[in-house]
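Methods — Computational structure assignment.
A single polypeptide chain was analysed. Its primary sequence is given first, followed by the predicted tertiary structure written as structure tokens.
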Amino acid sequence: MKKEYRIFISILALIFSIGATCIGFGLIGGSSLKFGMKFVCDFFFLMQTVATCWVAIELLKK
């Protein structure tokens, strides 16, 4: 795969990942869950974005 495509795919994946995290935060913030459960759900949304960053970094190292 060409380097330009790797960069494009990585940036696109990060944009979608950050968007999904923001939507998830908004949905969880507006819910009637207790604080502990909100924290756990927010943690999983945030970890999804971090995992996408790790994959993008590894893809660009090659």
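Note: The helical segments are 3-29, 35-61.
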